[in-house]
Design a protein that fits this description.
Layout: H1 3-10, E1 20-22, E2 30-31, E3 37-46, H2 58-76, E4 79-89, H3 94-110, E5 115-122, E6 126-136, E7 151-155, H4 160-169, H5 179-187, H6 193-198, E8 205-208, H7 213-224, E9 227-230, H8 239-242, H9 247-256, E10 263-267, H10 272-282, E11 286-293, E12 297-300, E13 306-307
Parallel strand pairs: 4-5, 9-12
Antiparallel strand pairs: 1-2, 3-6, 4-6, 7-10, 7-11, 8-10, 9-11, 12-13
The structure holds adenosine-5'-diphosphate and magnesium ion.
Residues 7, 11, 24-27, 85, 87, 115, 117-120 line the site of adenosine-5'-diphosphate.
Length: 321
């Protein structure tokens, strides 16, 4: 089997997506971009033992890769259009590829974001997914629009990503009751696509929480030239995370843990009711956790002290690649 057979077997699929004129098999895919829309695209690379456990089931590796990558479209308020996959494989492992590609196509179908092309090479395992989406011209949610007086919100709960990593890394916790919950939270984070789209024209700024709330809200503050006061006691934490650690650890997870893929966004106070309506319609929890103020960085509402922006940074310890 050569590279082309492999692509045909595992990655070429017919799609009835209306905007896909030509998918896998030519030098480029051809996509129709709707009029009056901007193309939103972003790429994420996942590496074994950095972004997933190398012995994880291949199906859930694919699901995690897909959901992590598409979360950036949610953060911009974009609608998924299609994706491409750059895959580096150490060898041709058919059972692995079969499960991996099934997980990928299943996610593509779920989020209406078909795989239309890619690249396949031999090398250390590496998975890069580029996501493409569309957003009405001028309506994308950027990091840079937060204004003094806006309220800061997060969707869902925070800290599960970090708690999951702790639980799944701990062989001792194998039989714990919360393990299935955290397995799902880790491998199937929920990209908040519907919320992102509903926040167009409503949120002044938005980001998806991949590196921890403090760091990611810090990005909104820096891009917007503002600061934020954060009510740490208001951070929404799942009952499962609450059952696994003391309050200090829970808050550490929520603020600095990352991997939650919830949205953090700012909304003018005048649109508070409109936001409540959106949350109700989508049956989603959104929690006010602070407000935008003049200045820079984050301040703890309780103590008035600055909060570290922390956050995960691949180059924190070592500046070399
Ligand atoms: P080229 O040499 O023109 O870049 P390739 O030989 O790399 O093309 O790929 C052949 C076709 O298969 C192209 O349409 C490419 O987009 C697609 N493709 C390659 N690898 C993948 C993959 N992992 N997933 C999806 N499509 C792929
Ligand atoms: Mg070519």
């Amino acid at each position: 089997m050569d590279e082309f057979d492999l692509i045909a077997l595992y990655f070429k699929r017919d799609t009835d997506h209306q905007q896909v004129t030509l998918g896998v098999g030519d030098d480029c895919a051809l996509i129709t971009v709707p009029p009056d829309c901007e193309l939103a695209f972003s790429i994420d690379t996942l590496l074994p033992d950095v972004h997933f456990f190398s012995d994880s089931p291949p199906r859930v590796i694919a699901e995690r890769a897909f959901r992590v990558a598409i979360s950036d479209l949610a953060a911009m308020g974009a609608e998924p259009l299609c994706c491409t996959l750059a895959l580096s494989l150490p060898n041709v492992d058919h059972p692995w590829l079969g499960e991996f590609s099934e997980g990928l196509h299943e996610s593509a179908a779920r989020f209406a974001c078909p795989l239309v092309g890619g690249d396949t090479v031999r090398g250390p395992l590496s998975i890069s997914l580029q996501m493409q989406g569309t957003v009405p011209k001028g309506k994308a949610l950027k990091r840079s629009g937060a204004k003094v007086g806006d309220e800061v919100y997060v969707s869902g709960v925070l800290g599960d990503g970090a708690a999951a990593l702790a639980v799944l890394s701990d062989a001792m916790a194998d039989n714990s009751k919360t393990r299935p919950y955290f397995f799902t939270r880790y491998y199937q984070p929920q990209p908040q696509l519907a919320l992102g789209q509903a926040l167009r024209g409503l949120a002044s700024a938005a980001i998806d929480i991949s590196d921890g709330l403090a760091g990611d809200l810090g990005h909104i503050c820096r891009a917007s030239g503002v600061g934020a006061v954060l009510d740490v006691s208001a951070l929404p934490i799942s009952l499962s995370a609450q059952s696994r650690a003391d309050i200090a650890q829970q808050r550490q997870w929520a603020l600095y843990g990352g991997d939650d893929y919830e949205l953090c966004f700012t909304v003018p106070q005048s649109k508070r009711d409109q936001l409540a309506q959106v949350a109700q319609t989508l049956a989603l929890h959104v929690t006010p956790i602070g407000r935008i103020v003049e200045g820079a960085g984050l301040v703890d509402a309780a103590s008035g002290e600055p909060l570290s922006l922390g956050g995960y940074n691949h180059f924190n310890q070592d500046d070399s690649l």
